[in-house]
Specification:
It is a single chain. The protein is of the alpha/beta class. Helix content is 50%, strand content 10%. A 5-stranded parallel sheet has the order 7-6-5-17-18, with helices on both faces. A 4-stranded mixed sheet has the order 2-1-3-4.
Length: 918
């Protein structure tokens, strides 16, 4: 474990005191206040505790609770009540008090701010019969409250009055060596002045309504922040913008191909990682690459950026040769077949490429060989003899991804020949322990072969200079930065760029004429060759770094090849190539509680989605809703149904349909006149703010978070309709009928705004909304300009079209049938063969045990899995996660323990439990 703390941060005092009091073994690293040590957070969060399993705790109270529970029993209910009181009542008052004393010089006003919490604590201590908050010994509650109060109670100048029970308890806890040692390390005996730099970086407290931190499993849009306070100025500004209408707005224009960079425009080149041609993409592949890139590209066009979106199939390599052998076709026939399959899938998912190409082209050979010769000319290639694995049964050298074995670094049993999926380290296939040919499962032998290498160490200085500039100026996701830094930290090594294969781009060097380029040298060059097949003027995009911004979209396993290997190839070629400015990498999307597997029939693959009867827009919505931006996420049928029925049907669809039906039913299909009152202006201001947040997030490629603001707008709209009840007011007098008209008119205009904001996510639904309301196309160009422009696009008298529901309910039996259909038929033999521990039903566990008996190797792996899952459960409890989440993880832990018992030859049934004493 490693604890990250900063000097002068009072929250870090809690964590250090808890660490010293419990004696838990943990490294401590001091960082500055601005250091972002939690990779998936967009803001600094200290203290932070990195757990052995890779999880982070970044709430000071959760860290303290974890320390105490690791070294002793779980926290009592009374202890948890004190921790909750500290976070929700004491901390807001302390933050306000410290702000006054440290930054405003108003120390005399601090007693008034802290009077309430201190009196409550004093009264509680006066009624107790034990020296500490929860008993005879110091608990986590004592440490947390003492550390929280230390900056103010140890400052004699604040004169906090007579709280004798508080002071007696405070002095008693302060007598612990652990507490005073921690205080000296964090505050260094400087009193309130020691926390000044920390306080200067904190937001101005708003009375006593702030909390120390939001739960780590809630997104910013889901936080319980209450309704946003809107100022009079915001209301008037929103109303002023609303009245502008569409008069000065240009209409939309179709894209003119070829799209080329233009002077005075923001020129954006978007690439999506090239999918392997030899397989069918699953939902994780789709969200990680093409769908995310598509959403951003559609958004960019709405913003009037000059944008080119290209992608294509990666068609060379051993994987294609093997697939061809399996299906009795030539490699070219396999490429033709699967390229068509990929194209069809992406078309169904409405991926709007400007050009979707492939790598088996003359342009690919021409450009790859040109880069090769330039690298050779400038001395960035070296020759070496390498040992490779050769399968004598298959009579060929094995490509890295067709070797599997035990990782030499972390002992993961299913590491590939080029990279371990568990620890992320790059490896050479010959380093694998117990290697196997993935085709025939025979043990390969080591043979020598002469190859060419890209001299990465020679390019390292250039690379680091470029990376410093690109990562600081561009929008690189935290995981992309972290993975790249780990590569550089370990030191770059020469990287082989040739392979002993037939199917690939031929190496033009006479000494290596029997070889082809290794796929990770060759494949990224496909971006260039695909663009060259789109336009002869491809160099205007790819050799124009001053005019062009390059966005790369991919899953995290592709990061090092796009942030290190490919940039080094282009830097070494010294031909003014455009290098990536913004590297956007997702984590992994899993399927329910396991991995996608075509062979086992587990998970939804691209060619199956359209057979479910669920529209592609709904698939897009849900995949983007659970997009794994900060950490791995999972596709869940039950959750998909829930989000469809609650967010799409009952929230978004309900609002838009009601707004349209009111126009049809009450106003004969024409938008009524609108006379804005303060309530309407407030709504316009709220909606405008949500629009601004959406634009800010989308500009930074925070696609999942931006989606929440669309749903917030429809929630505002539903509440607005519900409060004003236009279906009742339409039956009243003139004033009430006018009010019904205003509410209806404002609502249909919000629906038009939603159609524009939805366009990147759900293009068909977006168009359907505008069709139903006969909305002018110019609204598409207007709404997303600048920081957001919410104008009235459907003015009084505008006739709308026929309104109908946008979404259908997903029924329970329908979802259960789909879940069963895509759940796979994993046999006991397959379960036994699996070396990765997964949770299995008890019946399946027993069946495996009957076949296998004792399995020491599997027991070793499961012991580690049980330990990691135990850490996860303890962390969730420390975070006070939802009970359902904890219960699910505990169930996984119990299943893993059953599997471990079987692997050790023990009974999987738990021992009889003794009854608890009442």
């Amino acid at each position: 474990m490693k604890l990250f703390v900063s000097e002068g941060n009072p929250h870090c005092l809690k964590a250090l005191a808890a660490l010293e009091e419990t004696g838990v073994q943990c490294d401590v690293q001091y960082v500055n206040h601005e250091e972002r040590v939690v990779p998936f957070l967009s803001r600094p969060a200290l203290p932070a505790l990195l757990l052995p399993g890779g999880l982070h705790l970044f709430s000071s109270n959760a860290i303290c609770r974890y320390m105490f529970e690791v070294s002793g029993p779980e926290s009592s209910d009374l202890c948890n009540q004190w921790l909750e009181w500290e976070a929700t009542h004491l901390q807001p008052a302390l933050l306000q008090a410290l702000h006054m004393a440290v930054l405003q010089g108003k120390g005399s006003e601090v007693p008034k701010v802290l009077q309430g919490p201190l009196n409550y604590l004093d009264q509680s201590l006066s009624k107790g019969i034990t020296p500490y908050l929860t008993g005879e010994v110091v608990s986590v509650a004592d440490i947390v409250l003492w550390a929280a109060l230390y900056p103010v109670l140890s400052e004699s100048s604040l004169a906090l009055g007579e709280c004798k029970f508080v002071m007696a308890w405070f002095d008693s806890v302060a007598g612990k060596h652990s507490c005073m040692s921690a205080a000296q390390k964090v505050l260094q005996g400087k009193g309130l002045q020691s926390i000044k730099s920390y306080m200067q970086k904190q937001p101005v407290p708003q009375n006593s309504q702030c909390r120390e931190t939001r739960p780590c499993n809630s997104s910013p849009a889901e936080g319980d922040e209450g309704e946003r306070v809107v100022s009079e100025e915001e209301m008037e500004a929103a109303a002023f913008t609303w009245r502008k209408g569409l008069n000065a707005c240009s209409s939309t224009t179709d894209r003119q191909h070829p799209i080329l960079p233009q002077e005075g425009k923001r020129n954006i080149l978007v690439t999506s990682a090239l999918p392997y041609v030899n397989n069918v993409p699953h939902l994780g592949n789709i969200i990680g690459c093409v769908l995310s890139a598509d959403v951003f590209s559609r958004y960019g066009r709405l913003r009037d950026w000059n944008l080119l979106f290209i992608c294509g199939t990666d068609e060379y390599g051993t994987a294609t040769e093997n697939k061809a052998r399996e299906e009795g076709l030539t490699p070219q026939q396999i490429c033709d077949k699967y390229h068509a399959i990929h194209s069809s899938i992406y078309k169904w998912f409405q991926i709007d490429f400007d050009f979707f190409g492939r790598t088996t082209t003359e342009k690919q050979t021409e450009i790859a060989q040109n880069i090769f010769w330039r690298l050779h000319e400038y001395g960035f290639l070296v020759e070496d003899t390498v040992e490779q694995l050769r399968c004598e049964n298959c009579k060929r050298f094995l490509a890295d991804r067709f070797v599997e074995g035990t990782c030499p670094h972390c002992s993961y049993p299913e590491a590939r020949g080029d990279q371990c999926d568990k620890c992320g380290r790059l490896i050479n296939a010959v380093e694998l322990r117990e290697p196997q040919c993935k085709v025939c499962r025979q043990t390969p032998v080591i043979r020598s072969s002469k190859h060419l290498f890209l001299d990465l160490p020679k390019l390292e200085t250039q690379l680091e200079q470029w990376l410093d500039k690109s990562t600081s100026a561009g929008d690189w996701t935290p995981n992309a930065k972290q993975i790249t830094r780990s590569w550089l930290r370990d030191g770059l090594k020469p990287r082989c760029i040739t392979r002993d294969l037939k199917w690939g781009t031929p190496v033009p060097h006479p000494d290596f004429k029997e070889k082809v380029f290794y796929v990770w040298f060759d494949a990224p060059i496909g971006y260039l060759s695909i663009t060259a097949n789109y336009t002869d003027k491809w160099e205007k995009w790819w050799k124009n770094p001053d005019q062009v911004e390059l966005y790369n979209f991919m899953a995290k396993d592709n990061v090092p090849f796009h942030s290190v290997v490919f940039p080094c190839s282009l830097l070494g070629a010294q031909d003014n190539y455009t290098l990536v400015n913004h590297l956007v990498a997702t984590e992994y999307l899993n399927y329910e509680d396991t991995k996608f597997s075509k062979s086992r029939g587990v998970g939804v693959f691209g060619d199956m989605a359209k057979d479910t009867g669920i529209p592609s827009d709904v698939w897009r919505f849900y995949l983007l809703y659970v997009r794994p931006e900060g950490q791995d996420s999972a596709f869940s049928w039950a959750d998909m149904a829930l989000k469809n029925n609650s967010e799409l049907l009952n929230n978004l669809g309900n609002f838009i349909n009601r707004a349209g039906m009111f126009v049809t039913k009450f106003f004969e299909g024409c938008v009524p006149a609108m006379e804005l009152q303060q309530e309407d202006k407030k709504l316009l201001a709220l909606v405008s703010w949500e629009l601004q947040q959406y634009i800010q997030l989308m500009d930074k490629v925070k696609i999942r978070d931006a989606l929440k603001h669309i749903l917030n707008i429809s929630r505002h709209g539903n509440q607005y309709i519900q409060v004003n009840e236009p279906w009742k007011k339409i039956k009243g007098g003139d004033a009430e009928r006018q009010r019904a008209g205003t509410v209806t008119g404002v609502s249909v205009n919000i629906a038009c705004l939603l159609s524009v904001m939805l366009l990147p996510y759900m293009p068909t639904v977006s168009q359907t909304i505008r069709d139903q309301f006969n909305a002018p196309n110019s609204c598409i160009n207007t709404m997303l300009q600048g920081t957001g422009t919410f104008v009235c696009v459907l003015s009084a008298g505008h006739r709308i079209g026929t309104v109908s529901p946008l979404f259908q309910k997903l029924e329970v039996d329908q979802i259960e049938a789909l879940k069963k259909r895509f759940g796979g038929q994993q046999t006991s033999a397959q379960s036994a063969a699996s070396t990765e521990p997964v949770a299995m039903p008890a019946s399946a566990v027993a069946e495996v045990a009957a076949v296998n008996g004792v399995d020491p190797e599997k027991a070793k792996q499961l012991t580690q899995a049980v330990a990691e899952q135990g850490e996860k459960v303890r962390a969730l409890k420390a975070q006070k996660a939802e009970k359902a989440v904890i219960t699910a993880e505990v169930a996984k832990l119990l299943d893993l323990k059953k599997q471990l018992a079987l692997a050790e030859g023990k009974s999987p049934e738990p021992a009889p439990q003794k009854g608890k004493k009442k």
